[in-house]
Amino acid sequence: MQQLIYFLQKYKHFLFFLFLEIIAVALIINNHSFHRSKFISSTNFITGGLYNKSSEISEYLNLKDQNNILAEENTLLRNKLEKIYAIIDTTNIASVSDSLYPNQQYKYINGKITNNSYNKSNNFITINRGSKNGVSTEMAVINSKGVIGITDNISGKFARVQSILNSKSRINASFKNNNHFGTLTWNGKDYNTVQLTDIPRQAIFKVGDTVITGGKSTIFPKGIPIGTILEVPEKLSASNTIDVKLFNDMSNLGHIYVIINLDKKEIKTVENE
């Protein structure tokens, strides 16, 4: 309190002058329409800028929530697409109820990556979805850009995923422009590049061609993007191996989708018999 009194005493002449100036400016603005309009225009410009910056900061702080909302919407859209495909494949569309899609084969669950390794020979990823969410072993894990890996260990709330960057990873893959397929592996060198092996001699492909999942297993649907061909061997042989540049940056992963094959159990039963 003493400091405040000292300050007022020291600067009383300046403060009185400032007070009179404020009154003078207020009178000018109040009695002259030109000055009043300029003042209002300037005030709107300043407050508008402040509101805009405040809005930008608020949007930035809410990015996490917005990303979660988008992931939920994408999951919903993917599941609706699968139901549409099921209806298209149904001979008697009129008999299919809204809640029953007998030909629907795949269901999607969205989630996030909580841990990711990519610089080892056998890399694994942890996701925040487990048995309580319907996730079990040997389920495909993808994102909007393509293949990430396959679930191999499950708890109630979490799952471990064998990354595509794993020396033990074996994924059926094919060329987008034809039905020839091979096996996708990783040689442990570059986390941006995997290898496609066991390609038939008669297969036709070139640099830049897209490689997708082949759909020859109960894990991945056909057509999930993987990457593009980096180079073509000069001589084709029975053990063709080509490098495939991944669409995904495996060092920078966030939201994911787990794919549930609703027909997996039945397919396995038939194949085992």
Can you put this structure into words, describing what you see?
The strands form 2 sheets. This protein has a 6-stranded antiparallel beta barrel with strand order 1-2-5-4-3-12. Mean pLDDT is 80; it is low at 90-100. It is α+β, with helices and mostly antiparallel strands and 273 residues long. The protein contains 5 helices and 12 strands. Helix content is 34%, strand content 28%. The protein has a domain at 106-272: Rod shape-determining protein MreC, domain 1 (Thrombin, subunit H). It has helices at 2-10, 12-31, 33-61, 63-88, 264-272, and strands at 106-116, 122-127, 140-142, 147-154, 159-166, 171-175, 181-185, 193-199, 210-213, 225-229, 240-246, 255-261. The protein starts with a helix and ends with a helix. Strand 1 and strand 2 form a beta hairpin.
Describe the secondary structure blueprint for this structure.
Blueprint: H1 2-10, H2 12-31, H3 33-61, H4 63-88, E1 106-116, E2 122-127, E3 140-142, E4 147-154, E5 159-166, E6 171-175, E7 181-185, E8 193-199, E9 210-213, E10 225-229, E11 240-246, E12 255-261, H5 264-272
Helix pairs in contact: 2-3
What is the compact description of this entry?
This protein has 5 helices and 12 strands. It has 273 residues and is an alpha+beta fold. The protein has a domain at 106-272: Rod shape-determining protein MreC, domain 1 (Thrombin, subunit H), CATH 2.40.10.340.
Features:
single chain; 273 residues; 6-stranded antiparallel beta barrel; 34% helix; 6-stranded antiparallel β-barrel; 5 helices; Thrombin, subunit H; alpha+beta
